[in-house]
Every structure is written in C-alpha cells, then in structure tokens.
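call fold(seq) -> tokens
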Amino acid sequence: MQGIKRRIVYVAIYEAIAIAVTTLGLSVFSDKSATHAGIAAVASTTVAIVWNLVFNYLFERWEARQTTKGRSLRRRVAHAIGFEGGLVVVLVPLFAWWMGISLLSAFVLDLGLIVFFLLYTFVYNLCFDKIFGLPDSARSPQS
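ret:
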C-alpha cells in the first residue's frame, strides 16, 4: 500500500487509538470529566491528523533523498521524536487553555502522554510497516 491510501489508513488507525488513550489519560490525571477530556482528545487528534499528514509527507520526501535506504533504529527514533516534538508545541497550550491550567501544569499533565506517544509512535510505525510493508521512499531500488 502506497501514497495517500497508505497515509489515510495509517492516520485513521493511529488516531482512533490515540483518542481512546488521550481521553482516558486526561480524565484519570485531571479533575475533568471524561466528556471534557474527550473534547480535548478530539481537538488534539484533529491537530495530530493534520500534523501527521504534513510531517510524514515531509519526512518521506527527505527520506527519499537519502543514499541509505530502509528504516534503521536511528531513523525510526528520529521520526518519533520529530513527530511528537511538533505536537508538544501545539498541544500543551491547547490543553492549558481547555483545562484552565498553566502551561507548566499542562506540560506536566501532558508528560505522561508524551512518553506514551513517543513509545507508541515508534511501535506503531514498526508494526504498521510489518503489516503493510515499507513505503516506496524507504525501499532500495530493484536491480
């Protein structure tokens, strides 16, 4: 599976799991209801979907220009950190505003989610590539 179809399947599965985990995490670790936390989860998922499409498009364009093909551990770690780092910049202020807390408190609240999502992103990408195969950008040219 390649191109836009790959990206849509990737994002749909990834974000469905993300909404469930984010709702649970925000609800359990704050004094907000599951409904309030769920709205924050859906908002963060919307941001994450847009970022996911943009980041993965840019990452695959960069990856296609690399002389070394494949997805090494180092490349997968860089992908996960880059993706999650971009989300932190947007989501921490969003959570602070929606939950009515300081940026520092939002970051602390988000810290558990950040750690989870760093690991989740890495494992999810590994599993997704095992199931659906590598994208063309990561494949060695056929001889």
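The chain has a mean pLDDT of 87.
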